[in-house]
Fold this protein.
Amino acid sequence: MTSAFEDGFSAEKLFAQGYSYTYDDVIFLPHYIDFSTDAVSLSTRLSKRVSLSIPCVASPMDTVSESHMAAAMASLGGIGIVHYNCDVASQASVIRRAKSLRVPIASDAVFKCPDHLIGSVDDFGPSSFVFVSQTGTLTPSLLGYVSKSEWSCMKDEQKEMKIYDYMRSCESRDYYVPWDIDLDKIDAVLEDKQKGFVVLEKDGETVNVVTKDDVERVKGYPKLGSGTVGSDNKWMVGAAIGTRESDKERLEHLVKAGANVVVLDSSQGNSIYQIEMIKYVKNLYPELDVVGGNVVTMYQAENLIKAGVDGLRVGMGSGSICTTQEVCAVGRGQATAVYKVSTLAAQHGVPVIADGGISNSGHIVKALVLGASTVMMGSFLAGSTEAPGAYEYRNGRRVKKYRGMGSLEAMTKGSDQRYLGDTAKLKIAQGVVGAVADKGSVLKFIPYTMHAVKQGFQDLGASSLQSAHELLREKVLRLEARTGAAQIEGGVHGLVSYEKKSF
């Protein structure tokens, strides 16, 4: 449905004016609706051969993507990219565990060492149990457990004993179930055996511990679909690597662990190091998709496309914890970067990942309509139940740590090679360390976010990502730049106080 008159600007004209636009700088004009929200399809591709049901990717950051996040994102139809800010054995282990978490529940379970002394009920945290293992973490085998209710009834002299001396044993097979059992069956087992928890086991090793409280919590979330499953009938999981010689050995271990796609992680991807790594990976593993980046210009993208990349990651300095633009004076507004790179990439059939700058569902809509096939998120997912790290309280708010991979803290663990700084004498930070508020589980808020995205697509008259891209190319969809006042007007304003709930 075309208009006889011109209103707003085409993307081609708007992004040719020499301005570096962020998502907030631009707004789409509504189009024509002739379908329901439920008719909108968000199915897409991460890379040439990796298909997703939803356009969501968890960023390879050590405070975002480990086993629980990767499994949860795959169960929702997206994918998680496991960070490499650790030794290769640890990264491979995270990938194997993520693929084994068929029920992607990030339990509230608390683990302690055998010689730990429970000082107060606070040691149980939000869980009804404290589990005991040799290392104080979820290990190949659990030794026992203590319930909060039983501990509360113990005498004071008993509470002064080591937890190993009074814990209940987990040796009974009644506690164990297969790793690939579904949520309904776990619920039935808990009901039938009258246990407060079950231990999910694979090949004699503990994969996860799921409590009755966990099951009740997850049952209230939107129902999961089939998820992103590979040819091995396990969750698809991506892995990040660098471009150094040692990363070639890392790649071999990650492929053996089951990585389904590899992301070359660099803040500036247009380098001889990345081009050579792309060629190396494609020569050694021709069926393994390789995502290159990061890039923000057509020139950068062209070099990686010529090298044989299967996907492009777009963004430089747009993340909430990234200071690259401030420190190095390079980068680009994310809306402009996504549109420009996507315009070129589409001509070669290379999907684009819009990485960074996502704060709300509207930003996701803008990124996708401007040409991206997926959005990669860090801060949007950080602070969730599935994100690595423990919750703490700051000024009365429940938060989790969130740090940029360019922060000095992260660089000490090895992420400096992402900024080509691992051989430099001086370390210069391109990121910060912060904290984000508790968001709850991605299993709950991502489905609601995707429904909001569908509503945005409906308003634009686009029933799919392919449709949106075509409408943009044909200049049917129109945009305008927003003034500062327009941006204020477009948000909540003029109130003394308010409570903002998205769902």
Notes: DSSP finds 17 helices and 22 strands in the chain. The mean pLDDT is 89. The radius of gyration is 24 Å.
